[in-house]
Amino acid sequence: xxxxxxxxxxxxxxxxxxxxxxxxxxxxxxxxxxxxxxxxxxxxxxxxxxxxxxxxxxxxxxxxxxxxxxxxxxxxxxxxxxxxxxxxxxxxxxxxxxxxxxxxxxxxxxxxxxxxxxxxxxxxxxxxxxxxxxxxxxxxxxxxxxxxxxxxxxxxxxxxxxxxxxxxxxxxxx
Length: 174
Ligand code: HEM
Hints:
- By secondary structure, the chain is mainly alpha-helical.
- About 80% of the residues lie in helices and about 0% in strands.
- The protein contains six helices and no strands.
- It is elongated.
- The model has no long low-confidence stretch (mean pLDDT about 95).
- Protoporphyrin IX containing FE binds near residues 14 and 161.
- This is Copper resistance protein CopD.
């Protein structure tokens, strides 16, 4: 029962997060670069993506660690089996992808507020209030340009994560 709940929470979090990153890169980022979105709309989408990243960034490692404890004891199973390697790849891809989303949105916020520190950013993210109604703040197209490399790399890693999860689901031998 707990195992099923852990799997469900894990898969739902993974689907929500990778789906959110892919959707932003597919549907939101290009429109922002074309100037078809307001600065507020794009900043809000980026902030919400960051919040999804942070919430699932708690749920995924917690449920993932529980599944490791359940399925990969002794821990040598992680390095001694192909499923174990797939799980280690999942963990690594999660870490790098998390960092890329955090950095991408931080770069956007620093376009508005160059001196914002890590503490403030970690507490606030990139709320629309940070735009401060400043008429001279950069437009959505400028924000999209600075975030683009980070978001594109995140989307590529999201695809790898989904392939990795599919290998596990498809019964990669132990
Ligand atoms: C902290 C990071 C993560 C850890 C430690 C972790 C760990 C695990 C473990 C141990 C399993 C069970 C493997 C098995 O059945 O043998 C699993 C399954 C799964 N994980 Fe993760 N995971 C992490 C992040 C992610 C992310 C970011 C995604 C997003 C796609 C994801 C998607 C999945 C899916 C869909 C499954 C089910 C695969 C199956 O049917 O067996 N995981 N994960």
